[in-house]
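Protein in question kept in full:
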Amino acid sequence: MPLDLTVVILTKNESIHIARALENIRGLAEDVVVVDSFSTDDTVEIAKAHGAVVLQNKFINHAKQFQWALDNAEIRGKWVMRLDADELIEPELRTELERRIPTLPDDVVGINLKRKHIFMDRWVRHGGRYPLVMLRIWRKGNGRIEDRWMDEHMVVWGGRTITMKGSFADHNLHDLNYFTTKHNGYATREAIEVLIQMRRLGPRDNALNAKSASAQAAVKRALKESVYNRLPFTVSASLYFLWRYVVQLGFLDGRSGLVYHFLQGYWYRFLVGAKLMELQNGIRGLNDPEEIKAKILDLTGHDLNATS
């Protein structure tokens, strides 16, 4: 019998992944909700054909879209799972979930899972990329997503969290052009998030900690905001790449690993810093928060006042 679980997946033109994702969790979850950002391919048709409930909503950022899903979709399961269209539950984790979830005590409200990244069809084992421990399953009514423009995490309350031993895999089938385009968009949103904090353009969501999510995620966030973001990006990006590639043995991931660690661990981090510098130059001389937000909208196309 399927678990008393509802899986929520966000999509936008995911026809290359969605059938694979839904087949992967067939029989595991009682139902699946796909929240689509008005795809122009056949994502919606494929999702419906595989039995998913499909809703559509205008995309602002991942946090607002996912919270909209939690607030508006019919979540029937006792447990809820966040899954991306390009992510796959591995057999060992599936067996563990089927065995453990029905027997969990009432004080367990969140479940952390270990994510592995597949890049160019190879597992990135080193450079601090495995395991990435993330809270991805929670009891209905005991979880929400952080309200952030980037690097958002699920957080829970009312009990404790546990971590499963098995893994799920992020295995995107697109090419490098897609990877760099996607990360270019991520960099813009992350620069906006840093600027929001620097200029106090909105309330700061401080819900992430070792009790509300994974301890690993909380520590990484603290180091990022208290140390990394305080350094010049020309220095921090270089140090971060060397830390990952040399100290955390990223060089053991081979040539494809070098491509990944350089693009994701150096180029992307440098791009975030450069975009933040561009935004700071663009709002120079402005002090009124609404004027700053209007300028950010003009520069990036992102409306900081938008609600889902």
